[in-house]
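User: Second chain of the day. Same drill as before.
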Amino acid sequence: SGGVDSAVALHTLRRQGGHRLRAYYLKIWLEDDLAFLGNCPWEEDLAYARAVCAAADVPLEVVPLQREYYDRVVSYTLAELRNGFTPSPDIFCNQRIKFGAFFDAIGERADRIATGHYAGIERDALREAPDRSERFGGHRTARLLMAPDTVKDQTYFLSHLSQEQLQRAEFPLGTMTKAEVRARAAELDLSNKDRPDSQGICFLGRIKYPDFVRHYLGSADGPILEAESGRELGRHTGAWFYTIGQRQGLGLGNGPWYVTGRDIGNNTITVAHGTAVAERARRHFTIGELSWITGPPEQSRLKLKVRHGPALIGCTVSNPAGGDLAAAERLDITMDEADRGIAPGQFAVLYDPPYCLGAGKILPEGVL
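Assistant: Same format as last time:
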């Protein structure tokens, strides 16, 4: 990508030896749609990527995936926003682009795909009888492991990978912390050793998320309503810019204020003061569209994340239809502690540490 993580991942594999390496730059920048932002940042990213690959004596190929990115990630994000949900584009960027469209583009040219993600992979022993798994190194099952750097751990964003995708994946930074990666980059004197980490959604790099949303959905003046009284406290520029639990960007005095609800159809958001918002925090919710990396969990006591970050919360899961978890199409979640930022559309990612098991989409309250 031109960043320090993928650069150190490349050099780590090169140092290991025994690999035939080829580097790929995935070009997804939507210059036709986002030309209003000026110079294309992908050109700078690609320049760094070329410098890193030249120093490592590894060939670099550019793979254009702009249309696939729009169809599989941007369209999903916009549809979720229009429906009043909080999307997770980074999750689908990994599943549908880095380990999806890219896999399709290179076909049989690579046995493994290595990235700079902070995560690990544990593989079972070989099967006695040869089968299709030998195509991916002869392993029976691959499990997704949390990284030792809890702040940088990216298993939340990798939680939708299929078993086949994970079988072909390699994460050379899986045992490293960010500080160790920076130190390795300095040791190797990489051209991007001091380059700051990119921010924003997935490959959009330096684009601010509100700018991205505004470009596609526009702005619309609407009221900010106090949840307790219904009185108008201020104005906003579009309910789709906000999510449950959000504190920043409200422009209200005498805070802190937190978003507790939004109505896309009427273009209103409701807020509660910090002194009252704890009463609106939730411990219970339901998830659907379940996706498991190695199959559904057998035990009901697990850990979960409702957003990317170091916090793991204990929880109990159950099948709302009764019966085994393995047969569940949805799961009821009861967290050990309440959270004020549970938003429909977000993904709850389940863990049996150190393993990431998979994820489910948080459903609106009252959905059966």
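DSSP finds nine helices and 16 strands in the chain.

User: Great, on to the next one.
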